[in-house]
Write a structure and sequence with these properties.
Layout (H helix, E strand, L loop, with lengths): L1 E5 L11 H4 L3 H14 L3 H7 L2 H5 L1 H18 L8 E4 L3 H8 L5 H22 L1 E7 L3 H9 L5 E8 L2 E7 H13 L4 E4 L12 H12 L10 E2 L6 E2 L2 H11 L6 H10 L4 E4 L5 H9 L4 E3 L4
Parallel strand pairs: 1-2, 1-9, 2-7, 9-10
Antiparallel strand pairs: 3-5, 3-6, 4-5, 7-8
Helix pairs in contact: 2-5, 2-7, 5-6, 5-7, 6-7, 7-10, 8-9, 10-11
Length: about 290
C-alpha cells in the first residue's frame, strides 16, 4: 500500500517552487492564486529570497504548503494514495491533496495558523530542544518532573524527540537529560514553543477559523498528528486539527501505525527528504521516494 506524506516547517530552501512554477501553466495559476489570497507576492520570496526571509513563520508555513500542494496537483492521476499524513504544518497539505479541503481554504487556514503562532511566540517567549539517543519514556518522565512548562512536542522517530516550553524549563530538562545519557540535548533556533501549552492563544485563534471552514471526507484515510490514527470523518479531522497546535506531533507512532496498516511504500511530497529519512529510521529497508514529475 502506498502512502503520501507531507513535510512541515524546516524543509524550506531558497529558490523553492521555481522549478514547479516553470513546469506548467496549471502550476503558475496556483502560485498566482496564492499571491492573490495572501495579499503579498510570496512567489518572490520563495524564488528569490534568502534563508532569513524564508525563516519568518508567516512566510515559511504558506511557502511549504504551496510547494507541497502544487507538487501533488502536478502528479495528476499518478497521485493515488491508500493513505496520507503530514508532519505538523504538513497535515494541511495532506488534507488538500486528499480532497478534504480546497486549495484556497487550506491556504487561508495555513496563513491564519502562521500569523497566530507568530503572535503567540511574541507573547510567550518559549523555545524547543532536540533530544537524541534516549527512550521516549525517559524524556516524558523528566519533563513531568520539572517545575514549569516543558513537554514532549515532536516524536520524530525512535531516539529523536523534540521538547517544547518555557526557556528555563527546557534548559533544565536538557541538563537532566544529558546527565541521563542523551547523545545530544540541544536548543533549536526557533522563536517559540510550538506544540506546547504556550501555543494556547494560537489554538483558540485558529479554532474559530477551522470551525468556519467546510471540510469534506478525504479520498483515503489521513493519519493525524494528535492521535497517530487513521481518520476519515470531517468533524474528527477538524477537532484533531484544532488540538494540534498545543498537542505533540506523534510522528513515530504515525509511521508505525501506517506500516502496521499495510503501508510498504512512502512518497514524500514537498520540499526536502526529511520524512523519508525518518521512515528509514524505523526500518532501513523501507521503500521511500520523491514524486517524479
Amino acid at each position: 500500500m502506498k502512502a503520501y506524506v507531507f513535510p512541515g516547517q524546516g524543509s524550506q530552501f531558497p529558490g523553492m517552487g521555481k522549478e514547479l512554477f516553470n513546469h506548467s501553466k496549471d502550476a503558475q495559476a496556483l502560485f498566482e492564486k496564492a499571491n492573490e489570497n495572501l495579499g503579498f507576492k510570496i512567489t518572490e520570496i520563495m524564488f528569490d529570497g534568502n534563508e532569513e526571509d524564508l525563516k519568518e513563520t508567516r512566510v515559511t508555513q504558506p511557502a511549504i504548503f504551496i510547494h507541497s500542494v502544487v507538487m501533488a496537483k502536478l502528479m495528476g492521476s499518478a497521485f493515488n494514495p491508500d493513505m496520507v499524513a503530514g508532519h505538523s504544518l504538513g497535515e494541511f497539505s495532506a488534507l488538500v491533496a486528499a480532497g478534504a479541503l480546497d486549495f484556497e481554504a487550506g491556504l487561508k487556514l495555513v496563513a491564519k495558523r502562521a500569523n497566530a503562532m507568530q503572535a503567540a511566540t511574541e507573547k510567550t517567549h518559549g523555545t524547543m530542544a532536540a533530544i537524541l539517543g534516549l527512550e521516549d519514556i525517559v524524556v516524558e518522565e523528566v519533563c513531568d518532573g520539572i517545575d514549569g512548562v516543558v513537554v514532549p512536542a515532536n516524536y520524530n522517530c525512535p531516539g529523536q524527540l523534540v521538547i517544547s516550553g518555557e526557556i528555563n524549563a527546557v534548559k533544565i530538562a536538557c541538563e537532566k537529560l544529558t546527565e541521563l545519557g542523551a547523545r545530544r540535548a540541544m536548543l533549536l533556533p526557533v522563536g517559540g514553543a510550538f506544540h506546547s501549552p504556550l501555543m494556547e492563544p494560537a489554538r483558540a485563534d485558529l479554532a474559530a477559523a477551522i470551525d468556519a471552514t467546510t471540510f469534506s471526507a478525504p479520498c483515503c484515510p489521513i493519519f493525524q498528528n494528535v492521535s497517530a490514527l487513521a481518520v476519515r470523518e470531517p468533524n474528527d479531522i477538524k477537532n484533531n486539527l484544532i488540538a494540534q497546535l498545543t498537542a505533540p506531533v506523534r510522528w513515530t507512532q504515525t509511521m508505525k501505525n501506517m506500516i502496521s496498516d499495510g503501508c510498504d511504500d512512502v512518497v514524500e511530497v514537498g520540499p526536502g527528504k526529511v520524512l523519508q529519512g525518518l521512515f528509514k529510521k524505523v526500518d532501513r529497508q523501507f521503500n521511500v521516494s520523491s514524486p517524479e514529475l
